[in-house]
Amino acid sequence: MAEKQMKKLAQETAIYGVSSILGKFLNWLLVPLYTYILDSSADYGVVTNLYSWTALLLVILTYGMETGFFRFANKNKENADQVYSTTLISVGVTSLIFGIICIIFDQQLANFLGYDQYPEYISMLGVVVAIDAFASIPFAYLRYANRPIKFAAVKFLYISLNIIFNLFFLVGCPWLMKHFPATIDWFYNPHYGVGYVFVANILSTTIQTLALLPYIFKVKFNFDFALLKKVLRYSLPLLVLGVAGIMNQTLDKILFPMLKPGLEGASELGIYGATSKIAMVMLMFTQAFRYAYEPFIFAQNKDKDSMSSYADAMKFFIIFSLLIFLGMILYMDIFKYIIQRDYWIGLNVVPIVLVSFIFQGIFFNLSLWYKLTDKTMYGAWFSIIGTIIIVVGNVLLVPHFSYTGSAWAAFACYFVIMLISYYFGQKYMPIKYDLKTIGLYTGVTIILYLISLFINTPYTIVNIALKTVLMISFLVLLVKRDFPLRSIPYVNRFFK
What are the sequence ranges of the domains in the chain? Predict the structure, then answer.
């Protein structure tokens, strides 16, 4: 039974991963565009800073209602439509209020953030955040209804449109302006530059939400205030958890301009933001796993084999995270070309960021114990501790070590909260994780990584070939010990 559930989880992780990976891969596609097209790394620093703010605000505006919806819809399936309707109306109202505030007070907010000449950046991103927050509930409904393909299709629509609009404004319009100016000079400003990144975002987000309309009106609107109070009582601690969690991911990029002000700080933030994007493969995998795993843990809560399933999920998550880590590090000579050569000075932070993402993923895996036992305040406290570490770490390290200090602060944050969550999880909901196997793969990964540091010949092709041998050795261990070829669909027909 546990094996069957693992296959289902793996299948849904793969489907959700298509949309998640493509969404994050969007950053990969756009990072080289931004680093080559925008005037300087300082411009990309503006993108990095403002999108860090939007990520934080998005968590605040959803205030844990996605997880609250999963919890109460699964708790009483006969009442699932009412849970959906109530959460949708609640998030819709708060999002509308937020969007209006950003439009009315855009100049004041722009002055506070240091973008006083571009208040429209604030109003555009405020509307984007409001729409995304509202859309998170229909997306949650698709996950609850086990509609991963429809979920992925709508996400893919947004991804495609965002790429198209970015290419149009940043590449197509400058070309048209040079050769056929009359076609676009009535709306295009060649000096607006980075502002078109936000224009592309608001256009693609709006169209994505229109595509969700059939699922927004899927059920009859029925607001239950008593039910909302119950959902909020469960979800608001998750808001603290979510805010602290996203702050752990973005606070360094929010604080950076304050700790290193001026053009130099903006430039270094742009380098940090661009090089961190190289590590996004790990975050893609973590997010894809999360989309499938959160509905999975609530659905399997009453299954007698659930503890075994949770332990297996953790083991394979860590194994494949380590595989991704090695793939990224061993082939950095290839991946570095994602960004412009001027940004390569920041590549030293990539291994640190990758490991931080692994710790973050493990922390999410461990979060099941306080979600299933309704002790969500523990998760909030853990994340608050992480936020304190992030703030103190950045304040102490950034003035002396720039973005390398930010990377180490994030590493320390996730390492500490991962250990704390494991300790309390074993106390309140003990799960027998396969620590022996996890330790084996972790040790092998560290050894292979250390060996790779000594592979530094003058010939790139030789370096890649030698590092490929290291990669193959890890894959051999994986196949021989825990993932035999006969267990892989389609491949298994060739192996007994």
Answer: 2-454
